[in-house]
C-alpha cells in the first residue's frame, strides 16, 4: 500500500499534469474535482484516472504499484468528490506487486521485489 504522502504526491502531480498548470492550482484538498475543472462528462476525468494509474513520471506505476483504473472510474460524481477523498482512495486501492498464485495472490515485500514469491514459489508480477 502507498503512504499518504505518496498518494498525495501522485494525485496532485496527476492533476497538475492533466490540467497543465502549476502546483498552486489546487488551493485546498477540500476542493472538489469539478471545482478545479475536472468533470465526469468530458475526457478530463478519464485522463486524470489514466495519469494516476499509468503515467511513468507521476503515476502509481512509477512506484511499482498497481491500481485498477476501473476502481477509480466508478467513484462518485466529480462535483462531490474532493481531492482529499481521491487521495485516500488511491492510497487504499494501490497495491504493490503480487505473486501470480491463481488461488491466493498476495502482496510482496518491497524493495527490491523478489522474482519468485518466497511463500508459495509463484512468479511475482
Shape: elongated
Q: Can you give the mean pLDDT?
A: 85
Quote the beta fraction: under 5%
N/C terminus separation = 16 Å
Largest sheet: none
Rg computed from alpha carbons, rounded to a whole number of angstroms: 16 Å
Helix content: 25-40%
Poorly predicted sequence stretches spanning 5 or more consecutive residues: none
Question: Would you spell out the secondary-structure blueprint of this structure?
Answer:
Elements: H1 4-19, H2 43-54, H3 69-73, H4 83-93
Question: Care to describe what's here?
Answer:
35% of the residues lie in helices and 0% in strands. By secondary structure, it is mostly helical. It folds into two domains: 4-93; 98-125, no CATH class. Helix 1 packs across helix 2. The longest helix has 16 residues, at 4-19. The radius of gyration is 16 Å and the shape is elongated. It starts with a helix and ends in a 32-residue tail after the last helix.
Amino acid at each position: 500500500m502507498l503512504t499518504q504522502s505518496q498518494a498525495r504526491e501522485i494525485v496532485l502531480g496527476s492533476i497538475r499534469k492533466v490540467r497543465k498548470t502549476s502546483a498552486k492550482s489546487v488551493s485546498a484538498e477540500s476542493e472538489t474535482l469539478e471545482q478545479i475543472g475536472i468533470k465526469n462528462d468530458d475526457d478530463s476525468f478519464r485522463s486524470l484516472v489514466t495519469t494516476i494509474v499509468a503515467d511513468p513520471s507521476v503515476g502509481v506505476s512509477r512506484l511499482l504499484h498497481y491500481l485498477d483504473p476501473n476502481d477509480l472510474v466508478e467513484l462518485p460524481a466529480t462535483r462531490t468528490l474532493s481531492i482529499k477523498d481521491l487521495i485516500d482512495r488511491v492510497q487504499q486501492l494501490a497495491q504493490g506487486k503480487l505473486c501470480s498464485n491463481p488461488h491466493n495472490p498476495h502482496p510482496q515485500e518491497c524493495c527490491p521485489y523478489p522474482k519468485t514469491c518466497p511463500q508459495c514459489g509463484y512468479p511475482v508480477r
